[in-house]
Amino acid sequence: MIYKSFSDLSKAIFNKITILQQMNIGLVVGIPRSGMLPANLIALYLNVPYTDIDSFIENRIYGAGDRQKYIKAKSNNVLVIDDSISAGIALKKAKDKLKNVKNYNLIYGAVYARSNSKHLVNFYCEVVDGDRIWEWNLFHNQLILGRSCLDIDGVLCRDPRPEENDDGEKYHKFLISAEPKFIPTVKIKTLITCRLEKYRPETLFWLNQHNIQYENLIMLNLPNAEERRKWNKYGEYKGNEYKKSDYIFFIESSLNEAKKIKEISSKTVFCTEIMSVV
């Protein structure tokens, strides 16, 4: 699994900025939504205006506080950029939308390309093959989350406060009303949590309330919170479940547990405590 962060994206662009400068780019157009991030970065590095595809067609760019400024590009070279290219579907849609645009030299690009798709663009920063996931769409990638494990507390919702973790009425209230944190928009393969099995009804209620789709829910089969604290093998428990499966990605909240999961499984683990892979 190859993971790229916001920082990686910025570095990839910066490493190719000399090439972009030589292209004499007058305007950067982002392919919504993911392409707007590199479009903004490139425009800032080159000190040129940027916009999205629809605004470009209407001859409007982003200004300070409004989008009503008309395009006055320094050159007719326009970079149309996306974060990545794989099969080229988004690129084809962009080209179809821009097919009637005249008086501009359209240069199509992507920050990350595959070996078998790099020929589809005029410019790219890096070749990244295999299973890939980006920080900016971490919770919206069906190809990855459909083969992933996710923790619940600290990932999908906040962690319980110490006073809420009483294995009683306060904890029950937390389970059914916890504020959401990261809500995936695609179906998850497996949720794995150290919540006790006896709290499955409350957990199912909360997941349903927030329209979280998943295939499996694995919970800890111990009688009470005191026994769970004595047991204290949270990372090992999750790591062993991850290791014996064909899952390719794990999202965990605790850094200590994430390190243990990584140690046991030797697979990719993302930790929301540091918002990075371990």
Overview of the molecule:
It contains eleven helices and 15 strands. The two termini are 12 Å apart. The longest helix has 11 residues, at 36-46. It has helices at 6-15, 17-22, 36-46, 53-57, 89-97, 142-145, 169-177, 200-209, 225-231, 234-243, 255-265; strands spanning 2-4, 27-30, 50-52, 60-61, 69-70, 77-85, 105-113, 123-127, 132-134, 148-150, 188-196, 214-220, 249-252, 269-271, 276-277. It has 278 residues and is α/β, with parallel strands linked by helices. 33% of the residues lie in helices and 24% in strands. β10 (148-150), α7 and β11 form a beta-alpha-beta unit.
Helix-strand layout with pairing:
Layout: E1 2-4, H1 6-15, H2 17-22, E2 27-30, H3 36-46, E3 50-52, H4 53-57, E4 60-61, E5 69-70, E6 77-85, H5 89-97, E7 105-113, E8 123-127, E9 132-134, H6 142-145, E10 148-150, H7 169-177, E11 188-196, H8 200-209, E12 214-220, H9 225-231, H10 234-243, E13 249-252, H11 255-265, E14 269-271, E15 276-277
Parallel strand pairs: 1-9, 2-3, 2-6, 6-7, 7-8, 10-11, 10-13, 11-12, 13-14
Antiparallel strand pairs: 4-5, 14-15
Helix pairs in contact: 1-3, 7-8, 10-11
Sum up the structure in keywords.
single chain, 278 residues, alpha/beta, Rossmann fold, 11 helices, 33% helix
What is the overall number of helices?
Answer: 11
Poorly predicted residue ranges: none
Number of strands: 15
| Topology-level CATH name of the largest domain | Rossmann fold
Can you summarize this structure?
It contains eleven helices and 15 strands. The chain is an alpha/beta fold and 278 residues long.
